[in-house]
What does this fold into?
Amino acid sequence: MKLLDVSFLSECSELLLLDSDVFVFESLDMLDAYFDTSSNVFLRDYQYAFALGAPAFKRFSAAATFLPINTGLGLVKASTLDLDRVEFVLKHAPEILKMPQWSEQTLYALLSSSVGINLLGPSFVVAQGPGAEGLTLKHYVGGVRELAFTEGLPIIRAKLAKQRQSELMSVR
It folds into this structure.
């Protein structure tokens, strides 16, 4: 779990989380502006992807409402990664662990609720199907992961080939 990895291994005050099934098509320079906020920042999920039902989620959340986050990309303040809080939540809501695909995401949302959450804009997408036109980034989640290879990989390869060609032309 990256939640535990970064809690134990990082000495940074701000963390960039990036899953291996997230493909970046354009520059992420605009993310720098989000590091200046006091909130944690995540992708917007297209579904309720938490391992707790809404009533239980609200019971453990510091926020009045929840936002549909996806942790494939996240900018997280290390100070929000409160492992004592994680233990408390898991002790009182062990059902979180019955949905491992969403357990970590649920914990990030609960921990982030104390500082607030910002969601990235529409060019940062959690995949529901094909289509990458105009996207900065796409998270190829479980049900459509094959698109990472049939859609994402060819886009990345074409961009790299174009970049190499441009570099070769500038050397001549």
The chain is about 35% helix and 20% strand. The mean pLDDT is 91. The first helix runs from residue 2 to 9. The first strand starts at residue 14 and ends at 18.
